[in-house]
Amino acid sequence: MDSHEVIVTPLTEDGTIRYDVTVKACNRINYNSYTTLGSALDSFYPPLSARVRSHIVEGVRGEGKPVVLCLEDSFEEQ
């Protein structure tokens, strides 16, 4: 299985924050923008694990920097 890299980026424009989610897989890039961090995190199926969700929240809210992760290691145990 090919690795999928995910980048969650907080962006502020005109005082409004949005969260961009970029998924890089093989030679494809899928990009979506969300108005809340919760909706960005809820967009993954299967759901992200609580540990990964916490890591993303800390990174984008605490440091305000993009968070990069490997998607295959990020899901809840089914």
Could you explain how this protein is built, in words?
This protein is an alpha+beta fold. It has one domain. 26% of the residues lie in helices and 40% in strands. The chain has helices at 37-42, 50-63; strands at residues 4-13, 16-25, 28-34, 67-70. It has a four-stranded antiparallel sheet with strand order 3-2-1-4. The two termini are 19 Å apart.
**What is the terminal separation in angstroms?**
19 Å
Q: Tell me the strand percentage band.
A: 35-45%
Largest sheet: 4 strands, antiparallel
Give the structural class.
alpha+beta
The number of helical runs is: 2
Task: Give short descriptive properties of this protein.
single chain, 78 residues, alpha+beta, 26% helix
How are the secondary structure elements laid out?
Elements: E1 4-13, E2 16-25, E3 28-34, H1 37-42, H2 50-63, E4 67-70
Antiparallel strand pairs: 1-2, 1-4, 2-3
Summarize the structure.
The chain is of the alpha+beta class. It has 2 helices and 4 strands. It has one domain (4-73).
